[in-house]
């Protein structure tokens, strides 16, 4: 029986299937780990610019396709004082999530 947990992660029209070693980890931790994910030859899987074209620093979030409005809904890593997880948003093994850059005031 295969018990690996994986997500299909899409960023800038590139889709990659990732094994998630701890699906109960906070979303912020999963995004941070993904920023450092490397291919077998040592290159970063995704290019995460630190700033956008206006010079604003970027943060990154996961998002999911909302079929009711045909848009990607951002999954906030914290709600109040609680760190959110994939399960909090109903993300299951094999689901597709999107990486969304979000500029924040510097």
Please characterize this protein's 3D structure.
This protein has 106 residues and is mainly beta. It is built from one helix and seven strands; from the N terminus they run E-E-H-E-E-E-E-E. The protein has one helix at residues 27-35; strands at 5-11, 14-20, 58-66, 71-75, 78-79, 82-83, 96-103. The strands form two sheets. It has a five-stranded mixed beta sheet, with helices on one face. A two-stranded antiparallel ribbon has the order 5-6. A hairpin with a 2-residue loop joins strand 5 (78-79) and strand 6 (82-83). It is globular and about 40 Å long. The protein starts with a strand and ends with a strand.
Shape label: globular
Strand content: 35-45%
Taking the alpha carbons of the first and last residues, their distance comes to 48 Å
Count of DSSP E strands?
7
Mean pLDDT score, rounded?
Answer: 88
What proportion of the residues is helical, as a percent range? under 10%
Q: What would you call the structural class?
A: mainly beta
Summed up, the helix count is: 1
Low-confidence stretches: none
- The whole-angstrom Rg is 14 Å
The order of strands across the largest sheet is 2-1-7-3-4
Describe the protein's topology.
Layout (H helix, E strand, L loop, with lengths): L4 E7 L2 E7 L6 H9 L22 E9 L4 E5 L2 E2 L2 E2 L12 E8 L3
Parallel strand pairs: 1-7
Antiparallel strand pairs: 1-2, 3-4, 3-7, 5-6
Short description:
The N and C termini lie far apart (48 Å). This protein is mainly beta.
């Amino acid at each position: 029986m295969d018990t690996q947990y994986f997500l299909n992660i899409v960023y800038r029209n590139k889709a990659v299937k990732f094994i998630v070693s701890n699906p109960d980890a906070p979303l912020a931790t999963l995004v941070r780990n993904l920023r450092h994910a490397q291919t077998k030859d040592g290159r970063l899987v995704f290019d995460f610019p630190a700033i956008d074209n206006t010079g604003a620093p970027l943060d990154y979030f996961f998002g999911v396709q909302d079929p009711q409005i045909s848009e990607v809904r951002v999954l906030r890593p914290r709600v109040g004082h609680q760190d959110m997880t994939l399960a909090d948003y109903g993300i299951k093994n094999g689901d597709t999530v999107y990486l969304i850059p979000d500029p924040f005031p510097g």
